C-alpha cells in the first residue's frame, strides 16, 4: 500500500493488518534483544559462577539507565508518528534531527558518569572482594556503549514512529549473530586477540552496538527510508526539548517504577527461603516471556494511534485501541490457559527433580496465568495513551498496579493470612485485574480523546 497525498498508510486501510504488520517484527526484535543476555550468560558461565555474578550485579543499574533512554526515545516515536500522520514531512525530519541531537548529549553524559561512578556503584550493590574488580571493569566498558546503544534506540524509535519496523529488526538480527562470534573471541582470546575475561563480554557488546548505531545513523542521514536528519537542524531548541522531556520523563519513570517494584517484590520473596525464591524466579521468567508479545502490541498501538491522532482521525484511533484491547485480552488469555494446563511441565523444565520447587512454581503459574489477558489489556491501553501523547496516564497506571495494589497486597496476604508465601502469588492476578479495570475505564471515558482534540485546536489557533 503506497502513501497518498503525504498521508501515512497507517491512517487508512484495515486496522488488524496494520497491527500485525507492526507488532510481529517488534515482538521478534524484542526476543532477539534478550538473546544478548543469554549469549553473554552462556559464555561467561564457562569462566565460573563469579563471572556470572560480576555481570549480574550490573543489571539493576543498567536497567535504570536503559529506562531513561527508552522513555526519552519513546517521546521521539510519539512526536514523529503524529507528524507522519499529519503528512508533515518537514517536521518528521526536524523532530528526528532534534531527537538524535538531544539523546546524543544525554548518552555522552551518562557514559562518562557511568565510567567514573563504577567503583562506588558496584560497592553499593554489594560486590564482594572476589568479584569487585571484574564487576567494575565490566560496567566501565559497558558505560561507553551507552552512546551507541542510545543512538540505536533513537533510530529504532524513529523508524517505529513512521511504521518501518522491519529494518531495525534486520539490524538487531545481524548484530546478535555477530555477538555470538565476538563474545568467546574477546572473553577467552584467540591468536593475536587477547582475552579480556568478564570485560570481554562488554567489549563484544560495545562493538556490535557501535556497528548497529553506525548503520542506523547512516540510514537516517541518507534519508531514503522515510526520515532524513540534517546537521543544520541539530542545534538547541528549548521549546522542542521541553516537549520531548514532557513526554519522555513520565515514560522513563514508568519503566523505572516497574524495575523498582520488581526489586521490592524480590526482597519480600527472599524472606521465605531459597525454595520460594526459586519458584518465584521460574514464574518471573514465564511472566517475562508473556510480556514480550504484550509490549509488541503496545508499541504497535502507540505508532498507529500516534499517526491517526496526527491525522485528526480520533475515531479511528479509538477503533485501534478497541481492537488491540481484544487481541491482547483473548490472545494472552489463551496463552495463559495453556500455561495453566502445563504448569508442572514448565516448572520441571527449569528445575528437574526438585519436587517442592516444582509444586510451588507450578502453583504460582496456575494462579497468575489466567490473568495474562488482563496484563495485555493494561499494556495496550498504555500504548493508546502514549500514542495520544498522555504518557503520564501510563505512569500513573503502573504506579497504581505495582505500588498501591501488588506490593501492599503481597505483603499483607503473605504476612497476615494463612496463605503464607502464596499470598505473593495471589497479588499478581489481583493487581492485573484492578490495573486493567482502571485503564479500561479511563479509555472508555474518552477523556484522552477530548484532551487530544482540545490540544490540536489550540495548536491550530497558534499557527
From TrEMBL:
Compartments it resides in: Cell membrane
A Pfam family the protein falls into: MatE
InterPro entries: MATE_fam, MdtK-like, Membrane_Transporter-Flippase
Entry keyword set: Cell membrane, Membrane, Transmembrane, Transmembrane helix, Transport
Major subcellular site: membrane
Topology relative to the membrane: Multi-pass membrane protein
CDD domains for the chain: MATE_like_12
Residues passing through the membrane, by range: 20-39, 59-80, 100-118, 138-155, 167-190, 196-221, 259-280, 286-306, 327-351, 363-381, 393-412, 424-447
Protein name from the UniProt record: MATE family efflux transporter
Natural source organism: Autumnicola musiva
